[in-house]
Amino acid sequence: MAAGQHPLGIAVAQPAAGRRPAGKRLSRLLNAAGRFLLVILLTYLGLLAVTFFIGRVIPVDPVLAIVGDSAPPHVVARVREELGLNKPLYQQFYIYMGKVLQGDFGTSVLTSNPVMQDIRRAFPATLELASLGILLGAGLGVPLGVWAAVRRGGLVDQLVRVIGLVGYSVPIFWLGLMALLVFYARLGWVAGPGRIDVSYEFTLVQVTGLLLVDTAMTGEWEAFANVLSHLILPASLLGYFSLAYISRMTRSFMLNELAQEYVVAARAKGLSEARIIWRHALRNAMVPLVTVIALSYAGLLEGSVLTETVFAWPGLGLYITNSLQNADMNAVLGGTIVVGSIFIGLNLLSDVLYKLLDPRTRVR
Predict the structure, then answer these.
(1) Cβ neighbours around 228 below 10 Å, total
(2) Where do transmembrane segments lie in this chain (predicted)?
(3) 304-328 tens-digit pLDDT
């Protein structure tokens, strides 16, 4: 009897070869999601453990930072007990983890505000600066890297390599100071340090904390121009350093893709060079490039300490630096957790984009 044939001669439909049952696909998807969530949980737990033990290893007594060096011993003992620092280390970590998961990073010694409140105030400034910086860096770095790979050994390639070399070699604080000297002090093309002029600062209604967005929403275009004038120089500086790294990596990935056999086959079929480069080679190169851009963005969002210090930019990096200089460990550790969470989140986002760009990584 032929396979797939009923004893009475009725044909029976057979399942397509290689097609997995829906239940098995769902099971594989749930297993992958479970592993994904477990990795997130373990990573965040490791982040909390690292920040906790950093706070205990650094030779700064948080009690003395609060009450002062000249406080009586009974006051020091009482504050230590109130903070739970007289308990065993494992109990302190349990309490610390519970508070952090509730968004409680303690109170800043420097500002006397809850640390989370200070971070909410400082982070939008860093977000605005880093977002414009990565837009400039990726928007110019990717096309330059592609062009350098296509014109390998040519003038453009040499120019991109010089840009990358300067970006890696020159200290960012020196470039920032030179940029302020030339474009602000000498030429007067842009506004100076700070985020906005004092004349606008107290009249501006802040909704999102992103001043470009807030001034555009309220139609205050004069204030918008002032904010942009303050923003463009530090953002261009960060964008340049991102461009140096992204263009270099794009060139490397594109050289690898242009040497693949599918490019030779596409040329043999008569496809245009522009279609081969931008639609096929760049699309494949974008898979590893996603991680490069995501980590560059995370590096900018972590505070860009030197840039914010040079330009007196009231962002997360300047906040953490000032807190460290004043032994405000609650603020330092709170900022560190926020930075680590940003890196975790952007890594997860790059994993999701991986699956969208490369079907081979999807669960089958």
Answers:
(1) 16
(2) 29-54, 129-150, 162-185, 227-246, 285-311, 331-354
(3) 778 888 888 888 888 888 888 777 7
Return phi, psi of residue 302, to 5°.
-70, -10
Query: What confidence score (pLDDT) does residue 235 get?
Result: 92
Burial call 335-350: b when 16+ CB within 10 Å, e when fewer: bbbbbbebbbebbeeb
pTM given for the model = 0.79
**What superfamily would CATH give domain 115-325?**
MetI-like (1.10.3720.10)
The residue ranges of every structural domain in the chain are 39-95, 115-325
- Distance of alpha carbon 182 from alpha carbon 236, whole angstroms: 14
